[in-house]
Amino acid sequence: MNVLSEWAFIGVFFVLAPILPAVPILLGGVLSPKKPNAIKQATYECGVETVGDTWVQFKVQYYIYGLVFLIFDVEMVFLFPWAVAYGQLDFFAFAAGVLFIFLLSDALVYAWKKNALEWA
User: Fold this and answer.
1) Which of 6, 45, 60, 71 has an alpha carbon within 20 to 30 A of 105's alpha carbon?
2) Is the pTM of this model over 0.70?
């Protein structure tokens, strides 16, 4: 295979990447039934109608707590393949995984020392 045919796969990918998700979205918009009414157009929030002012200020700490959880949750997804292939890893792959776990532990200690994990 020459270089041009190897790059053709990437070109096809760039052409198909926006088309594949756009087709179902457009088909859903064209083929879906459209029967609007006042109830369907109303804002829905947890099934409970709001009483009073709906603009409530939340503590930033809740968002930080959620972000720390999300970061460590996603990082565990990255560690799963490493753990599955643990028996076939060479030294450098093992060292990379240990470094990754060390960096996660360091971030956890940092968040802990900054009291970002305290639920107030």
Assistant:
1) 60
2) no
